[in-house]
Amino acid sequence: MPRYGVINERRNQLHEVIRLSGMNLIIDDNDHQLIIKVASIPSARVQIYFIDNDDYFARKAVLNDPDNGKPFQDNDERATFFARGVLETVRKLRWTPDIVHCHGWFSSVMPIYLRNTFADDPMFSNVKIAVSIYDDAFAGTLAPEFRQKIENENINDTKLSLLDNPSYENVMKLVIEYADGIVMRTPNPSPEITAALGKAGKPIMAWQPADTPDYFDNYQKFYEGLL
Q1: Which of 2, 71, 120, 225 is most exposed, with the fewest beta carbons within 10 Å of its own?
Q2: How many CB atoms are closer than 10 A to CB 194?
């Protein structure tokens, strides 16, 4: 996940993983250092890897400017850096995933890379993509140069035409195009999203409250159905 500036590193005992850090990622022709940090959740026996960079994640906010409540103008680049950072880190860990599960619009660049830049990498060539759709719509659009910034990385995909108007709905339509399966984490998606899901013809796990009986078993069955 991103190491947003609101995360208290001392309280959560984050520390940098030197062997994974140090790579520079080029985003819109500018170098940005990739820093990897890690923390653990002992009760769940889970490690969390954090994608960090001072230019994108040091600010004491998540996605919106606290001074005016509007989305940060560079959210498109932050999402791009996050996606690249995750995939490069997985490469260094030498861990081949069966399923990459993307949560919300901020992970929307991940499927683009998986089906283009990383498509021929043996670590990712057989990976399935699951996408969870939330009530996380942003106001307005992302930067109008979003599509061009992605295409500048030698990505040529007609699906990217959806980013000519990078609204929330169009970003999620693009993600749905790439997904192998969709998980609904909102009971009331917008009409545009609902229409896109109807046309997709892909496995959909319907919305269910977290206290639904067999909640986790249903996820397991959904994943198994993708493989």
Answers
A1: 120
A2: 11
H or E element at residue 77: helix 75-93
Residue 111 inside a domain? The answer is yes
Q: What is the CATH number of the domain that holds 161?
A: 3.40.50.2000
Residue 194 lies in a domain: yes
99-129 burial code (b ≥16 CB/10 A, e <16): ebbbbbbbbbbbbbbbbbbbeeeeebeebbb
pTM for the model stands at 0.94
pLDDT digits (tens, 9 = 90+) for 195-222: 999 999 999 999 999 899 999 999 999 9
Which residues, including other chains, have CB under 8 Å from residue 139's CB and lie 6 or more apart? 70, 71
